[in-house]
Design brief:
106 residues, mainly alpha
Length: 106
């Protein structure tokens, strides 16, 4: 048996063992993807808020209450994206740890 075949065998064994914990595996993958998505959304929202506020402030007939309202909406979206990113970033190692503990006991 070559080293390459041995590596494939070990990977298949680990994969089959991990499939016993399907929900933890799905949760870990989903949390990683969601945390990465929200991590990428935050800079985009910041850039949009700066562009939006610069555009609103340079308009000659802009209403301060309208500017404030739009900035509060953007701030709320930023806060929501940050909280969701934090929640999914917390779930990722927790579910991965549960999966690793389950595999270690087998």
């Amino acid at each position: 048996m070559t080293l390459h075949q041995l590596g494939e065998t070990v990977l298949w064994r680990i994969t089959l063992m991990a499939l016993r914990y399907r929900w933890e595996l799905v949760l870990a993958f989903f949390a990683i993807i969601a945390a990465s998505f929200f991590q990428l959304v935050i800079p985009r929202l910041l850039g949009e808020s700066v562009d939006q506020s610069m555009m609103l402030l340079t308009e000659p007939n802009s209403v301060p209450d309208e500017i404030r309202f739009k900035l509060f909406i953007t701030a709320g979206l930023l806060l929501g994206a940050s909280v969701l990113r934090g929640c999914f970033a917390f779930v990722t190692p927790t579910s991965a740890s549960r999966l690793a503990n389950g595999l270690a006991t087998n």
